């Protein structure tokens, strides 16, 4: 059995910040720039999602620019998402990552693992068995699939979503 990877380190020019519903206008452009990996989402809908999140966490530059974020939801959240419902119905106690986004200009700096370290830490604190998420198969997102595989995520299903316009791979990683 291999040892767990070393914790990811946040570069000195960035900081982790809790997000609130009031940050929705800052989150929306970053979120929408990541389409089709994540759906285009209005600031009002993002504000509601941040309000539901057990972990609404951002990464910002020392100048205050939001360059990444993760929104993770605990079981029982009042969230009407096909993918969240899949994991709820699966019956395994998990912390669900609805979306994780890193600005294109910041990719390759290890920010995704920094955010996932926080997700897994919260899942351990809450006594969850796994962390779950989904990644697009169609339209394809091979970079995200490879990233999640490196973090220990394995497929547990797939399903069409958004009225059949998107197909996702549903993934889980043990806590």
TrEMBL record:
One of its GO terms (molecular function) is acyltransferase activity, transferring groups other than amino-acyl groups. The keyword Transferase applies. Keywords: Acyltransferase, Transferase. Signal peptide: none annotated. It is an enzyme of class 2 (transferase). Residues 14-175 form the N-acetyltransferase domain. It comes from the Bacteria. Its EC number is 2.3.1.-. InterPro entries: Acyl_CoA_acyltransferase, Bact_Acetyltransf, GNAT_dom, UCP028520. This is GNAT family N-acetyltransferase.
């Amino acid at each position: 059995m291999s040892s767990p990877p070393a914790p990811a380190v946040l570069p000195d020019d960035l900081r982790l910040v809790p997000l609130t519903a009031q940050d929705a206008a800052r989150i929306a452009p970053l979120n929408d720039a990541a389409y089709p990996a994540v759906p285009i989402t209005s600031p009002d809908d993002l504000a509601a999602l941040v309000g539901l999140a057990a972990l609404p966490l951002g990464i910002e530059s020392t100048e205050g620019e939001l360059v990444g974020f993760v929104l993770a939801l605990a079981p029982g959240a009042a969230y009407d998402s096909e993918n969240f419902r899949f994991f709820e119905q699966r019956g395994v106690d998990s912390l669900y990552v609805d979306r994780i986004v890193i600005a294109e200009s910041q990719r390759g700096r290890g920010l995704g693992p920094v955010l996932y370290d926080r997700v897994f830490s919260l899942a351990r604190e809450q006594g969850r068995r796994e962390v779950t998420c989904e990644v697009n198969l169609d339209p394809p997102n091979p970079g995200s699939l490879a990233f999640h595989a490196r973090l220990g995520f394995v497929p547990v299903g797939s399903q069409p979503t958004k009225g059949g316009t998107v197909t996702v791979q549903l993934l889980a990683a043990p806590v």
